[in-house]
Amino acid sequence: MTWIESLTLNSPSGFWNPIVWLAFLVIFAIIGYLIYSRGNRSYKPGTEQVKPFISGNAVEDVEEIRVRAGDIYWGFIEALKGYYGVLMRMHSGDLRDYILWYLGLGAIILFVLVGGV
Amino acid sequence: MIEHLPALIIAVPLFGAFIAPLLKKKGSAPAVWAIIITGVTLGMALLLVRGVLAQGMMVYVFGADKPTLVLPSGYRVPVRIIFEVDAIGAFMALSATLMSFIGALYSYSHVRNETGLEKYYALLLLLEVGILGMVLTGDLFNLFVFLEIAGIAGSALVGFRNYRGEASEAGIKYLIVSAVASLMVLFSIGLLYGQYGNLNIAYLSTQISFNTVDMIALGILFASFAMKCGSVPTHHWVPDAYTEVPSGINPTLLVATYASLYALFRVSFSLFGNITVNMSSLGWIMSILGVLTMFIGVTMALVQKDVKRLMSYHAISQTGYMLLGVGVGLAVLNDPAKLEAFGRDAMAGGIFHIINHIIYKSLLLMTAGALFYVTGTRNLNEMGGLARKMPYTTIAFIVGAAAISGIPPFNGFASKFLIYETSYQLSPIFAVFAMVTSVLTLASFVKVFASAFLGPPVKKYEDVKEVPRSMVVAMLILAALCLLFGLFPNVVLDKLVYPAVDALLKLSSYQTWGGLP
Fold this sequence. Notes:
heterodimer; A: about 120 residues; mainly alpha; two-stranded antiparallel sheet; 5 helices; 2 strands; B: about 525 residues; two-stranded antiparallel ribbon
């Protein structure tokens, strides 16, 4: 068995070799760098050129226009409002509910085992 | 010396826990003491793993003239407290000691300004004792005792910051949930003892006839350990506990949770492993619980604004992968062809995911602790632009987030790869849920990265700087492990994981230690 085979993770219907994957990653990074190095050289960091432009309006304080965590995935959560409504009710924070869920799970498992489902 | 390792590995941290309070007025001495003790215990765990892999299962009989003498002349059943360390027990012991050491190292700076540190470190060492006892014992009552030790030490640590109301509430919730689960475990042990007059797991597994009382005992044990390991729908205590516990304890608390998962596997495969009926149903229950756990966990994580709470829901979600992997193996346990074709690999995926998850989730919770250390808040809405101020924490977070999302070449990918493929063969729906969960995991970590580390700098954090060196070192060790385990998954699988899987599957070798008729 070669060293490369010894590092190959065989699964029931495929394989995975991280070293080969890494080698491809390095090759693609070099290709990417070569493309990048042939790009436009007029970009000058630290000059007026890199300042944000909002249709000629003065740029607000950047801290005020940042996207906060609560706004990220707003649409996703809004679309699944019904699902999240159920989930939130399930996570009541009430210790008595925790024990009820435990009893419910225990009852289902006992039903399956003793009932022979 | 080597033959006494199973006892010494418990005795050393127990000794350390009793000495720690004596160092109350010695500055950082309790922290240094805990680092030394956990370091020594880690060394002993490595020796234990080497011994078990080289010589097979180690048996240690407490109080015997010779620690390997299980049945003295005239005895027909084992009556003493016996530790039975096989490959899965050694695997869990290594995970526990490694994470306790990393946790102690991280805590050195992280909780330096808190009061009562001698109690903190004593409890950390007691928690380690509880976990090690659970994973090494071969005796059901002993399992209960160590479960209680871990539960009480864990709840005291969850409520350690008692000046925060939320911490006290989380500590009490954890204590009550632990107590209910462990008392029901005791009740089940009583049922089995009443029938068979013995508490030794290997001996009991040869006797169990799977009558109605046995089934009730199995059902209660299954539900109780499922609650203790944070499986849906009994996972509610996890976000509270993981969020409020100091970040240095998170790694050890994670392993404590997975010690209950180990107990669930031990009960399913070893205690009741001789049973050929109904175990397939139990495997399907475990797999379905796994899928529900991963999906509900990740969707709840997506809406969190508290960084530690978000990561705590991910811990629940990742437990689902382990349940799914091992559940697939349990579902086909009595079908040799399927077990050979994909069941054993599914279990390898589930058990490999335990150690992978312990590593990257500890890393992520430590980065959350670092954010709290620097900003004084866990609210993601109030953070921003911290990547420039905390470069090492940022690198550690990126590695942890990539690993938990299953991005190659980090460690999470290798175990998830096995779980996806093998669960597909039992039911394609399982694999679909597992992959969707990974995508949602990545999405929620993009949220954390974008809101805490990227974006314009926030004025009130203009003067913040990177966290102290011991915290950085602890995080970088874990980040390096994420990469190493990802680049060389075969080494970990061959040396640690497959022997652990085989220890669960080869019940006869677990039962034959005593030469019982």
